[in-house]
Write the structure tokens for this entry.
Amino acid sequence: MECEAEGKKPDVLHRSREQRYFFDRIFNKYCNTQQVYDKTAANMIDSVIKGFNACVFAYGTTGSGKTHTMTGNENEPGIMYLIIEDMFTKIIADSEKSYEIRVSYVEIYNEVIRDLLVPNSKDTYLDLRDDHVRGVVLSGVTEFSVSEPKEVMDLLVTGNKRRTTESTKANLTSSRSHAICQI
């Protein structure tokens, strides 16, 4: 699916529940991860450095390229790597402040939240809780303090090995395309 007119927000009808979803951007299979990053997540870095939370949400059908868009490979780094690279570049350039960077990596699959940085987390589910100081938090999520991009990437590699993956016929026949939604 492509959005022909700039500024027009396409809507997608979800067949089972008759709901409409609106997307800020839809990318076709010819977009590379740098282009997707530049149009979506790049503008969040300054806000994150100022202390705001941010989330990149990849949405698409099985085999549409979500994992590739987020993680990439050695020849074409994914959005996660590009975010980390930009964030550390800006933090290193800011000599007036000190920063503490903590990493958590979770998966939401079939409406269940799992901590991907905990071994054997398939049987351990996280709950959303309302904390009177911090607001909504993931109760019991693991956080690792990091000081350089390589530490973050190592944690992401570890978490990626623990992700839920299921093979379907769609995985065998679909061509690669990118789909990401910025909310």
